[in-house]
Write a structure and sequence with these properties.
Elements (H helix, E strand, L loop, with lengths): L4 E3 L1 H8 L6 H13 L4 E4 H15 L1 H13 L3 E4 L3 H13 L8 H13 L3 E3 L3 H5 L3 E3 L6
Parallel strand pairs: 1-2, 1-4, 2-3, 4-5
Helix pairs in contact: 1-2, 3-4, 5-6
């Protein structure tokens, strides 16, 4: 079975939106993960960011369809953010790397990946590389 892939907002949006410059590569990586039997793991914070983007750019109906499809899709695992996860993410990632501009969503994502021993993220966000994770698709540049 293929190793799980973390799903960040940046990579997820690129996979879904043909308007994104990295759409083809992100969509291919997303499809390869699913067709290869691999899970896509993300957090409720990332899901919330995606919902907000879809709400803004595609409207309430599309945003709600996204949530409904996600709830019914067994290839996606959504990690809820409890107090322990949030506080650990702040301490381990935001305080220890205070020179970085990691968001709370980033920090929680990194902590989920650390706990689950995940190395790869469908992400265009270079923060994942700065935190020591592999970006999928592999991108060059800042």
């Amino acid at each position: 079975m293929k190793a799980a892939l973390f799903l960040d907002t940046s990579g997820w949006l690129a996979a879904l939106s043909a308007r994104e410059s990295t759409h083809a590569a992100a969509r291919e990586a997303y499809a390869a993960q699913v067709s290869g039997g691999g899970m896509l793991v993300t957090t409720a914070l990332v899901m919330g960011e995606m919902h907000a983007l879809l709400l803004r750019f595609r409207g309430p109906a599309a945003a709600l369809r996204f949530l409904d499809r996600l709830a019914a899709d067994p290839t996606h695992e959504i990690i809820d953010v409890d107090r322990d996860l949030r506080l650990t993410a702040v301490e381990r990632w935001l305080r220890r790397f205070a020179d970085q501009d990691f968001s709370l969503t980033d920090a929680v994502s990194f902590e989920v990946m650390r706990r689950r021993k995940m190395r790869r993220a469908l992400a265009l966000d270079q923060h994942f590389a700065a935190a020591g994770y592999e970006l999928v698709p592999a991108l060059s540049g800042p």
